[in-house]
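Proteins fold reproducibly. Look at a sample protein:
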Amino acid sequence: MKRVINISAVNIKFVKSSMHKPHNYVKLLKYVSQNHFIGKIRKHSIGMLGELNTITNANGVCISGMIYRFTDIDDTCPWFNTKTNQLILDDKGEPIPLVDKNNKPNTETTRFVFFSNGHRFLFDNKIIAPRSLQKLLDSIFSINEVRKMFGNIEVEVETSQDKVKEIVKIKNKRSLFLEFTVPNPDDLSAEKAKVAKRIEMLNLRKYNELYVSDDSIKLDDEAKAKIDIASSNGKIIVKTLGKDGKIHTMSTDEYPLDEKTYYDGKKTSNYFNAFMSKSEEIWKILKKRG
């Protein structure tokens, strides 16, 4: 039976340029997994990374593993007995914990792979959306122990490849807003490397630029390079004049990367092989964005 996998991705970046080495990214993921650090997704939803395996091949060192998502139980709040209609409290009126604090309910899991070369984290998004994963990783990387060892870390959601192409090709662009953090100097084209070098020379951490036209914005190679960088390191907002005479707004925040691949569900190994093969294909494109 044919089954589908939906793959999304985030770009993980060390803010401190001296930390930008593949082995440091591997060290980061192993550190947060081995220490069982838990991050927040939303009010009662938390998660962590685990079951890490190291894969070394022509692409460099990759880390495959699992994302765990579960419900957070507040130990300070009492349990309730629905048969007696009473709170479960001790003699002093304090809540009585009914489960070990390390046991988490409503657990869901999904697979990820991290390519240290190009620092891209790709994952099966069946239980967690890209923005939710961004919140989870931001939360984990903000833990004091992690910051002390690795410094500040940025997590950016990757934009749909089709949407980036549409933004470049779409006609009647009246305004174009680009915002992005400084890309790491990986496998960049000459034009992107020039943009990255200029931002570095200006000693900037975040860059934004607004293009406005009374007719239609014409993109040169530099503008296209910045769009590509922003698609992996920030966001793009474009306003166009439609055939209806109205201004229409499109933001890449609403279009995270979501690529499909298929596998034969008869064997468990088919899932892993299909996931890894498609992830590698996507990674080769993403790492060129910066």
Summary: The radius of gyration is 22 Å. The chain has seven helices and 14 strands. The chain has a mean pLDDT of 93.
